[in-house]
Amino acid sequence: MSAPVDLNKIDIEPAQLAGLLAAEARGVQVIDVREPYEREAGHIAGTRHIPMAALSEQAATLQKERPVIFYCRVGARSTMAAQAFRAAGFQALSMSGGLVRWADEKRPLEPADGYVADH
Description:
Layout: E1 11-12, H1 14-22, E2 29-32, H2 36-41, E3 48-49, H3 55-58, E4 68-71, H4 76-87, E5 92-95, H5 98-104
Parallel strand pairs: 1-5, 2-3, 2-4, 4-5
């Protein structure tokens, strides 16, 4: 990873994630665990979508040797995902404050007119 990330903590700040994405850190897997309608409303470019309900069946598609960063609307679902994946041996993190904080910090969403949908 190109930016220093403390893997001993479960949270990663939006600014840290933005830096990793800007650097195109190939070692990081970023997963949006929100519902499909939330993803369609707005999401972080370059991230993968796996709804929370499908995470267990899709776990094998994630690489254990690469850190995985989850995000959701406010951070509750992504923290649960990170905890579960840590228990399974992954280096897993959750973006602090979720997409609400990302957008509040004026970070870009896809599509260009994207917004944070209610859950």
